[in-house]
Amino acid sequence: MTVNRRISVAPMMDWTDRHDRYFLRQISRHTLLYTEMVTTGAILHGGAERHLRYNDAEHPVALQLGGSDPDDLARACEIANDYAYDEINLNCGCPSDRVQNGAFGACLMATPDVVANCVKSMISASNAPVTVKNRIGIDDQEDYPSLKRFTETVAEAGCKTFIVHARKAWLKGLSPKENREVPPLKYELVYQLKQEFPELEILINGGIKTLDETAEHLKHIDGVMIGREAYQNPYVLADVDRRFYGDDAKPLTRHQVVEAML
Ligand SMILES: Cc1cc2nc3c(=O)[nH]c(=O)nc-3n(C[C@H](O)[C@H](O)[C@H](O)COP(=O)(O)O)c2cc1C
Q1: 145 C-beta neighbours (distance < 10 Å), count
Q2: Range of the domain at 99
Q3: Is the dihedral of CA 63, 33, 114, 157 positive or negative?
Q4: Residue 2 within any structural domain of the chain
Q5: For residue 144, what is the domain's CATH number?
Q6: Which residue minimizes the CA distance to atom 22 of ligand 1?
Q7: pLDDT tens by residue, 161-191
Q8: What is the average per-residue pLDDT within 45-51?
Q9: Which atom of ligand 1 is nearest to the CA of 208?
Q10: C-beta neighbour count of 181 within 10 angstroms
Q11: Residues lining ligand 1, CB < 6 A?
């Protein structure tokens, strides 16, 4: 199974639920859509059906998991196999306190070996390709060396695709919202990563708002993930199919999108 990740919409808690994804699918046929993060606990103990079901029309759709226990992640992947997601992604970028206490999300950037074990275990359990979404670093980690070490270690475990939010996360002192705005964006570190690991698929995320900016990034890396802009200004996706997938079919008008939702 191959997934075209040239353009994707980011996983966003409370935002990219199945209704939002169905809506976005009316605007672009090809953009890869990510679910909100679903924790292994929610899948294993909280009713998988409620968290995992979606409409077939949402394909291509990727499930993002939150967790750091290899066995739990494997069991979550086995359950997710029944739902035929196109990709399973591990969250190594979310800085919220609740997530840190569960020891997953961005704090995993400090323990590449743990992530490598998680990824190995997910790959052996999942029918779909396994990817990782991470930051360029956390707290006072050195900028590039820690990103390189993280990528190398996790790639050795079999992960071929990394989606990098091009800013650090500060785990103490900044709220999750501030962590999406305050640490500076450093796109050049993600480009450097692609140069150093040309065999890996490297995607960039953070602060990208237009398709012109998207086209610029695509000169350096394999794909662009758009977050907030796709929620706050969803019609930005209307020209994605033509510009980035060579699909000349006319996009639905805003009016037709509303009718489709009705
Ligand atoms: C409301 C909201 C919820 C988010 N939830 C998640 C999440 O569940 N998992 C995750 O990896 N990132 C999450 N993020 C971060 C986004 O995926 C993305 O990395 C970030 O917003 C930067 O991209 P942007 O500048 O294009 O928005 C969230 C962001 C927002 C705004």
Answers
A1: 10
A2: 7-261
A3: positive
A4: no
A5: 3.20.20.70
A6: 206
A7: 999 999 999 988 898 899 999 999 999 999 9
A8: 92
A9: 26
A10: 11
A11: 10-15, 36-37, 64, 91, 93-94, 133, 165, 180, 205-208, 226-229
